[in-house]
Amino acid sequence: MNERLSRFNTGLLADRKITQLMIFTTLIFFFFSYASRDIFFSSSNFISMAYQIPEIAILSIALMLSMLTGGIDLSIVSISNAAALVASWVMTTKMDESENLATSWIIIACVLGTIVGVLAGAINSILVAQLNVTPILATLATMTLFNGIAIGVTNGESVSGLPEQFMRVGNGTFFGIPTPFVLMIFIAIAVGFLINRTTLGLKVFLVGTNRKAAQYSVMGDRKVIAWVYLISGLLSSLAGLIIASRTSAASPDFGSSYILLAIVIVVLGGVNPNGGFGTVTGVILATVVLQMVASGFNILRFSQFFYLAAQGGVLIIVMILNVVLENRRTNKSIAKSLRT
């Protein structure tokens, strides 16, 4: 009975946060549609957003997984850049003078890129899960390490001129829908199934809610955390490949502001920074919200510096609201228990 009640309360909490996000999304949509004289409300703008949303959404999902355990992965952008650089280097090296490349080499390059992401995730796993290094310090160190290696190997230069076959993934469509958006949906469904319908997902929430209890579970908290950072590395590498495909280039310092944006998205999406609660749906909705704000700012010709300020402001407001609402729920629970 208590277990059913707990699941009901968790579902209610999830619905409340998602409902708030949907209301927020609707308000922003109508505001920018009105302010831009319907330029915002156009098929070209929606298509443009559909190409831009997936890369940051996938990175945010990778970050969400680590935050569900009460940790954080600051190296997601560095991993995505490293994976993109390796894949791009393989493709440009094997490309002939006519700028053609066999499909098999494109597949090999992408596989090598994902392997780089998994290896980077394995390093984070060893530091956080096995050596018990604080996640923020461990991933800050690996972020610097991966960035340094990428910049050192490439001398800070980007790898460009990728084959057209590879670029079709990031710039093509699937039944009229941008291919990156379709890939994002598949990844979101897969991760949603992982955390909501598998034993590993259950234990991820358990680690975030009560790590002491997770230590005595069948799988153990260290194995759970190790898997989380491995999957985070894999997702980061996939985001890097999508970015490289869309921009036809890979750079060691691409998306330097993406980590802050991902943190804002994850918190705005309802993920508890202390772990134990979060939904993929919330993260996707939060990504859409901030992309609409970015597109609206661009259409209205606001300075991008104001957009950075808006990100920080949104993060502060959301954290304050979460604290206030949590304290209010706690006080109501205490008052109710005293009355009974």
Explained architecture:
78% of the residues lie in helices and 2% in strands. It is mainly alpha-helical and 340 residues long. It has a two-stranded antiparallel sheet. Strands 2-3 form a two-stranded antiparallel ribbon. Strand 2 and strand 3 (177-178) form a beta hairpin. Helix 11 (258-268) crosses helix 12 (280-299). It is globular, with a radius of gyration of 21 Å. Residues 1-13 have low confidence and may be disordered.
Write the layout of secondary structure elements.
Elements: H1 2-35, H2 43-68, H3 76-94, H4 103-130, H5 135-154, E1 159-160, H6 164-171, E2 173-174, E3 177-178, H7 179-197, H8 199-209, H9 211-215, H10 221-247, E4 249-250, H11 258-268, H12 280-299, H13 304-339
Antiparallel strand pairs: 1-4, 2-3
